[in-house]
Design the sequence.
């Protein structure tokens, strides 16, 4: 191999850079997201239950929101009958955020952790809370 | 051990089927069942919503402003303070500009000088809907030409297509230019087109459009397909015009008149 020394040094430098994110974060656990449900409206509820089960909402809320949007906006169907038969008015800003009025500790907590930036807040007005960014 | 080409292909085919089936299972997992979407029973419905503007009843500047202000306030319409960036849902223009084919110099003075109130015509044959590449703008079953801001990519084809200038583009972030936010209604964002929505959000609650409510009878809203509706009664007893020259079949009608008893 010609120029073995130079190539090896180059390779080592490359590996050092490429693996930097891994070893610099090694052993350091990033705090797990801990979304809070302690808003005044939720605390006053007798049965603390969203429109669907907790597991469903965790996994599928983005799909549900898309379906809600299409139902309300395109088909004019503004009532949602959930799998347990309860009927809810469809409105992100006036229904979802009425209970989940803590955008920072509810929405942003996981979204920041997962590095997703949903564009909800470009148009929808976030509820007033202390030190609200928007 | 060797495998013939034929056997290999058979095996590969069967395996891919299996993978396909397991994927469909994944897709359906976690989906809620028995979900259903319904229209609200208290909502107002129609086959074709329409508006009749009685210009005789717009007398003072205040009559115009009241209608414009309520609309722009409840829908979070920004005021950029300059015409270049202007965003409008309801606005006014001179008779000559609004009805260029009706203009002649012998019209009564009250008509010549009169300003007309304008909003989206919610055309029965809407050119904006035809040109929208993302179906962000669409015609609802009740005739309202609605817009899904989530889907708008800001191409402004609809603005070019609309012959009435009913659509405005958000060149800048509108949020800082809304004097008082209505927390019940969203704002728009930079890069989307917006226009009058005939207050669909109010119709769903059983309320008439806000402008109609504050107009003191100058604006009438109703179902054009129902011969007994308020709008049809007015249209059958008064001579009305609409901006029909271009074949879009607008749903907004104007009663011009000269005097109150005309």
Sequence:
């Amino acid at each position: 191999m010609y120029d073995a020394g130079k190539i090896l040094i180059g390779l080592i430098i490359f590996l050092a850079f490429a693996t930097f994110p891994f070893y610099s974060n090694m052993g350091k656990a990033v705090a797990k997201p801990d979304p809070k449900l302690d808003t005044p409206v939720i605390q006053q509820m007798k049965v603390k239950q969203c429109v669907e089960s907790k597991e469903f909402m965790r996994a599928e809320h983005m799909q549900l929101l898309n379906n809600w949007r299409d139902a309300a906006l395109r088909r004019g169907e503004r009532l949602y009958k959930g799998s347990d038969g309860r009927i809810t008015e469809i409105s992100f800003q006036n229904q979802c955020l009425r209970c989940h009025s803590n955008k920072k500790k509810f929405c942003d907590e996981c979204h920041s952790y997962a590095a997703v930036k949903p564009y909800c807040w470009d148009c929808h007005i976030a509820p007033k809370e202390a030190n609200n960014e928007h | 051990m060797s495998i013939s080409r034929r056997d290999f292909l058979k095996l590969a085919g069967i395996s891919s089927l299996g993978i396909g089936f397991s994927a469909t299972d994944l897709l359906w997992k976690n989906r809620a069942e028995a979900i259903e979407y319904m229209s609200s029973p208290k909502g107002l419905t129609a086959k074709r919503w329409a508006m009749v503007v009685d210009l005789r009843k717009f007398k003072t500047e205040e009559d115009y402003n009241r209608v414009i202000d309520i609309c722009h306030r409840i829908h979070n319409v920004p005021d950029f303070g300059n015409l270049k960036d202007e965003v409008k849902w309801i606005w006014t223009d001179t008779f000559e500009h609004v009805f260029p084919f009706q203009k002649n110099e012998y019209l009564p003075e009250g008509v010549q000088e009169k300003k007309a109130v304008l909003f989206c015509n919610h055309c029965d044959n809407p050119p904006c809907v035809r040109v929208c590449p993302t179906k962000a703008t669409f015609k609802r079953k009740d005739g309202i030409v609605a817009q899904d801001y989530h889907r708008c990519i800001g191409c402004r084809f609809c603005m070019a297509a609309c012959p009435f200038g009913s659509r405005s583009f958000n060149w800048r972030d509108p949020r800082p230019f809304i004097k008082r936010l209505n927390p019940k209604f969203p704002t728009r964002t930079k890069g989307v087109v917006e226009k009058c929505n005939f207050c669909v959000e109010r119709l769903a609650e059983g309320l008439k459009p806000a402008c109609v409510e504050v107009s003191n009878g100058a604006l009438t809203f109703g179902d054009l397909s129902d011969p007994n509706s308020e709008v049809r009664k007015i249209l059958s007893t008064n001579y009305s015009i609409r901006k029909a020259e271009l074949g879009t079949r607008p749903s907004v009608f104007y009663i011009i008149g000269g005097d109150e008893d005309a």
Observations:
- Chain A touches chain B at residues 52-53, 55-56, 59-60, 67, 69, 71, 73-83, 85, 87, 89-90, 93-94, 119, 122-125, 127 (CB under 8 Å).
- The beta strands of chain A are 79-81, 87-89.
- The mean pLDDT of chain A is 90.
